[in-house]
């Protein structure tokens, strides 16, 4: 029986480029791979069709011959299932390795050492430290190389031996019909070695629980919840694998004066009734000390004035934010006789009713 149309099998058009063909192949190979469809003969047959289609469309000469109606599919150019036996998927090895993490290619290589876990810890800093930057000590409990065996897992004076099951390869092949799938060795977990005389401190694991102490450089301008990365300060990987990273999560204390609003700071500044009416020059706080700003005559309650570039540093050295001053009119809750008399005089000379427009609009 002649093979199916490879374009239809992969679900691509005849004008598809190499990347589109490879993407379609990856998707279908993942879907119908025997690892994910154990015992499903239909999936196994579909997988073979996908392999055959890709073997044609990924080869410029075969694709050209198919497009021109050539007869490459009856003999050596056709799909040969024997090329997939023994865990060797020929030209598909790299792609299957990408998809299934070296289970489809079966090259017999020892697995790469596993990377250690990333860790998180909280670092508490004051508002001033967050604005200026600081170096803060932190203690982190983690799993680290055993100090007795230095991470080998073997008793001092001995060394791990070659795994008796996989002979040091770290992988073993398991037959599944036409295919032979390589997996990490069950005896050694992929290390290629066995520990026959384990270290008494770590019981052969090569790691123990320890407390590590670091100093975290907190950059100026961090916010509450910012993540500061310490590369390689997480847990070391098993079997001598590289260490993960440590992330310090900043918890910033509150300021008695300023509130953080994104890249900027905000502060409420009370002003008196006379200052709001006739205007004034007032002193306001900044991160460094204080500055003077001008309150315009007739300033309304809640008016915001801004000092550019006086706020917190922006992370990455992108300048500084602003400080927003929200002017709130301080109305006294009680008046002396003299103050009441002055207010009465002021009310007598003030013109107009500010609510007149609202009331007249009801009609």
How would you portray this structure in words?
There is one protein chain. The strands form 6 sheets. A 4-stranded mixed beta sheet has the order 10-11-15-14. The protein has 9 helices and 15 strands. Strand 10 (259-261) and strand 11 form a beta hairpin. It has 363 residues and is of the alpha+beta class.
Tell me briefly what this model is.
This protein is of the alpha+beta class and 363 residues long.
Essential attributes:
about 25% strand, about 25% helix, four-stranded mixed β-sheet, 15 strands, alpha+beta, three-stranded mixed β-sheet, 9 helices, about 375 residues
SSE arrangement:
Elements: H1 6-10, H2 18-32, H3 41-57, H4 60-67, H5 93-100, E1 119-125, H6 127-132, E2 134-145, E3 161-162, E4 171-176, E5 179-184, E6 193-194, E7 207-218, E8 227-230, E9 246-252, E10 259-261, E11 264-271, H7 273-278, E12 280-285, E13 290-295, E14 303-307, E15 323-329, H8 337-349, H9 356-360
Parallel strand pairs: 1-9, 11-15
Antiparallel strand pairs: 2-7, 3-6, 4-5, 8-9, 10-11, 12-13, 14-15
